[in-house]
Amino acid sequence: MDAQEVKSDLVLILDYGSQYTHLITRRIRSLSVYSLCLNGTVPLESIVKQNPKVIILSGGPHSVHTPNAPCFPPGFIEYVESNGIHVLGICYGLQLIVQRLGGKVSVGEKQEYGRMEIEVEKDCGLFGNKKVGDKQVVWMSHGDEAVNLPQGFEVVARSQQGAVAAVENRKRRFYGLQYHPEVTHTPEGMDTLRHFLFDVCGVSAEWKMEDVLEQEIKVIQEKVGLEEHVICALSGGVDSTVAATLVHKAIGDRLHCIFVDNGLLRYKERERVMETFERDLHLPVTCVDATEQFLSQLKGVVDPEVKRKIIGKEFINIFDAFAHDLEQKLGTRPAYLVQGTLYPDVIESCPPPGTESTHSHTIKSHHNVGGLPKNMKLKLIEPLKLLFKDEVRALGRILNVPEAFLKRHPFPGPGLAVRVLGDVTEGNALDVLREVDEIFIQSIKDAGIYDSIWQAFAVFLPIKSVGVQGDRRTHSHVVALRAVTSQDGMTADWYNFEHKFLDDVSRKICNSVRGVNRVVQDITSKPPSTIEWE
């Protein structure tokens, strides 16, 4: 997506490794402003190519004093000043500005982590209508602090411990916040970002999903030749369905969809999904039963990363075979594979192709990102790879994808393989998990809370516990229930069910699913945990 093509000013974020960098992107987009991340050390040409209106330097775990500490490229200062670009440094980004423009950053006498009160010291551009003496609670996370500012800079806010909390040089258009305005723990953070972007920088709020749709259709039509055909891997989830509908709108009947039953689907998922495709979406879909192919490859495998790699490889083998069959039928081999990869998938797996982001550590390989084999014959089309889940849903509404389908909870590409901890082929783990999951999800729907939850599912644990059922001692399986709320899947809080609901579900599972005698609930947020267990 090009900012000019989607008719929007671009706020470019240079990423220095903060766990919150994606939140800056998300918060800015929520203001109808287009935002992208690049590695904070990319060559200057990569920044110039994006033609940003504003640049934000993210936080990060580094110290500006350490050897090889990441920094913006040579010529950056001259570029932003000569082009009138506003720059905001957050946390590490503030310290980088201070140090590189001639100030001094030292190890703080007192480190500041967590909630902290700050006070405005001077009338300034950063805080809008805030007056001298006004206070607010912010989220700090730093050990170093700015002690001497570059010439022309002013301290406009300090923490209750006296540390520099905000600086600015309005004439040179440089601003800095020592805290994180993008997190919810900074209650007035969005007001600060809104004021900075619209009132200080003059950014226009013109980024709309209609423009994204128009641009993506144009990109697909330019990429796919008039005689070329495309395969789309449908999972039954929101992402791949919206991607397929989008590509179908762009190239019509030259799109060929395939739904693979890999033996790792939920209870009656295959029947339900195929009915939806045919009845509501009118997409041409070929269903392939590859249960034996996948499970035979997964037999004995317990490492979650290996599972994901195996599943990614087998999917591609099936897609290649499907492409070969189509070649026999059409007289030409499909050249492209469509996948519903999202921005969070990319961030957690590896750097986005072409976006040069390298600072975030790989959390886990998503089968359609980090799990793809290097010798894959099909070229990828990923029209959603720079969008978050709620943006994909908005795009789906424009494309008239049924609302009930858009509200479905996310389901991982590797399926139940990452919800059966350990060997998925051992015993009847998959069947047990399907039954438990069905009871849990149906109970959530019956309680009228399905749409209040981002994602809910059951997990089969590789342990057994002692129980008493029917006056007999049992030694049976333990299952865990997980439900979270989230806006984009990058961070999440566990859902607080009523005790009666949990009691009813636990009883129903233990009474209905043979081989289960204990139910536990996962009450961990993300971070520190991921949403899925593997």
Kindly describe this structure.
The chain is an alpha/beta fold. Helices cover 33% and strands 24% of the residues. It contains 15 helices and 18 strands. It has a 9-stranded mixed sheet with strand order 2-1-3-4-9-8-7-5-6, sandwiched between helices. Strands 12-11-10-13-14 form a 5-stranded parallel sheet, with helices on both faces. Strands 15, 16, 17 and 18 form a 4-stranded mixed sheet that branches. Helix 6 packs across helix 7, helix 7 crosses helix 12 and helix 9 runs antiparallel to helix 10. About 4% of the residues have low confidence. Keywords: ATP-binding, Glutamine amidotransferase, GMP biosynthesis, Ligase, Nucleotide-binding, Purine biosynthesis. Pathway: Purine metabolism; GMP biosynthesis; GMP from XMP (L-Gln route): step 1/1. This is GMP synthase [glutamine-hydrolyzing]. It holds the Pfam family GMP_synt_C. Its EC number is 6.3.5.2.
Defining key terms:
single chain, 534 residues, alpha/beta, 9-stranded mixed β-sheet, 5-stranded parallel β-sheet, 18 strands, ATP binding, GMP_synthase, glutamine amidotransferase, GMP synthase activity, GMP biosynthesis
